[in-house]
Design a protein that fits this description.
229 residues; single chain; 9 helices
Length: 229
């Protein structure tokens, strides 16, 4: 049974990756890295870890976007576990029953770009380049993953977050452009998409992280992706 399940999971990830490459054949050069990133995210969540995400400008929006896909249903419904449903109904009565039916299972993820008071406090009191690194100090644990996004690969606040992540035992998945910039050699998995212009790089990042989120969701909440083919 376990062998059959493993084969089905591998098939599902292959189908998702192949669909991505069919739509964006230029991404074939980073196909193996996308696959590695998917495996790393699944292992992180299987071990009870969480995902931290950071980036600037358009990559800031991407950070929030990734967290949105992980923390609630993306392409598949994710009912909360039955034990939580029971507890909600016991403590909340009619409203608890409503929550039990409406709430969805979340995969723990935090966008380090979203905490305005903390970010401005760090920028004002210490160093603006430390806005993400400080949060990795507070949130990050060994076995977690940092998704670091920089189209150039040279954003100092992202690089500082990577250094802290490595020091604390987090795995780092980098999303960047063709050259990789200074992120080269710092990330456990570097998805350096084939683009040089910021707009081109960011246009490739979106389908890449969508594919990763679908891989993770399919692994934990059913092989719906195969069923839809």
């Amino acid at each position: 049974m376990r062998g059959c399940l493993r084969k089905q999971i591998l098939k599902m990830k292959t189908v998702i990756l192949n669909d991505l490459l069919k739509r964006y054949p230029q991404l074939d050069v980073v196909a193996s890295e996308i696959e590695k990133a998917g495996k790393a995210l699944i292992k992180c969540y299987e071990s009870g870890g969480k995902v931290l995400v950071c980036g600037n400008g358009g990559s800031c929006s991407d950070s929030d976007h990734i967290v949105g896909e992980l923390m609630k249903g993306f392409e598949h419904k994710r009912p909360v576990p039955e034990d939580i449903k029971v507890q909600l109904k016991e403590v909340g009565g009619e409203r608890g029953s409503y929550l039990a039916e409406k709430l969805q299972h979340g995969l723990p993820a935090i966008s380090l770009t979203a905490h305005n008071a903390l970010i401005t406090a760090v920028a004002n009191d210490t160093d603006a380049n430390l806005i993400f690194a400080q949060q990795v100090v507070g949130y990050g644990n060994s076995g977690d993953i940092l998704i670091a996004i920089s189209s150039s690969g040279n954003s100092q606040n992202v690089l500082d977050a990577i250094l802290v992540a490595k020091a604390k035992g987090l795995k780092v998945i980098g999303l960047t452009g063709e050259s990789g910039g200074k992120m080269n050699g710092l990330c456990d998995v570097l998805i350096n998409v084939p683009g040089k212009r910021t707009a081109s790089v960011q246009e490739y990042h979106l389908p890449v992280y969508h594919a990763l989120c679908v891989m993770v969701e399919s692994h934990f909440f059913g092989n719906f992706y195969l069923d839809s083919k």
